[in-house]
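Journal club prep — side note

Before the paper discussion, L.F. wants everyone to see what a predicted structure for a comparable chain looks like in token form. Sequence:
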Amino acid sequence: MKAVTFIFVVMIVIGAAVLWGYKSMLEPHDRPVGRRQSIGFERARAALQPEDKQAFTAKRAFAARLAKAAELGKSGSNGAISPFGADMCLALLLNGAQGDSFDSCAKAMGLNDPNIERLNGANSRLLDLLASLPDEPLTWGTSMWNVLPVRFNKQYQEDMARLYSADVRKLGSARQGGTDIVNDWVNQATNGQFKSLFTRLDPQAVAMLLSTIVIDVPWGIVSSPTVTGTFRTAKGTRTVPMMKVKSANVQMLAGKDFTIVGLPSKNGTLRCWFVTGAPGQSADSLFGLLDLNWWAKTPESMEQEAVVAFPRFTLRIRQDLQGPLSRLGAGRLFNGPNDFSPMSHDMQPSYKVSNVFQALQVSFKEQSPAPASEVKPGEPPMEHTIDQPFLFVIEETTTGTVLLVGAVNDPSQP
């Protein structure tokens, strides 16, 4: 009788443990996405340190190199990439690597003799600032997943959550339950803009990284309702909706065969740079002008009141960044051998990063026209119209962090 009772109790305990593990795998809703909390914009801006400038300068150089490596706008298509999101993914890997793997990651990020503690501090303060931007113009998320029986080191998970608000998790399976967990994370991280990214996961996935970013922000003050206009593409003209936005702080850089226009967001915390070339020039041919640290030196005295007319469009993109990051020097991370022991003692030299996926959405869409109280009488401001292929760069104005780089050859196409 005692033996039977003992077996019965053991079966109950084991059954409960299996049920709990299965439930925790299929029901991620009690494990919310790591969402950075606002600490107040002025407090976040005051917390930035002088030594952070070096990291932010490196990020701008990385953004230009990554956009070129991604070959955005090639073959007349539209494209976009988030250097900020890619940089955060590489930062997770840098913290989890050592030896040649660490050096490969640092090379891709453009870091010479990197100090990981200083970099983590600068990135953490940057994320506090982005989370504290007025009106919440962007949402983002960063995560890392394992499917193989590889357990992340607890200290690594805690550090990445504290410093980067990153979710670092091990999935029990690549089957539908595991796929649903990852898709649920993406859905939460994008506020429902991406309901699902995956139909199935790689059952051998190790260090699969995900980056999401959604930007939806009013630009300047709408000077008139959206109207129909003409956009010149390499394949002919297109009829597209055109927005007209006015700002007193438009920056302009002009040369013989190019124009660069910097349009601030309505509250000035973000800036979108539009780059156009000579008539007939495609968007991908403009990357030679992508000197972001040069743009940052544009004096405020060059700001002027202007109306900028540009197409209304939305880009939604899901992509694997393995190719562009490999071209920047991160090939070892995807091919091995690697030393990822700081992130997991279960990592073997043959293990490699499976993927670095990115899902992004940016919308340039109608806003309500300015109320009469905001319309000042006087001479009409200068007007600049963007009606041909262009690049656009969205940056945070305090640090110059590049959130998004895009190439638009035909705004009538997705």
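L.F.'s comment for the group: The chain is about 30% helix and 25% strand. Keep this in mind when we get to the figures.
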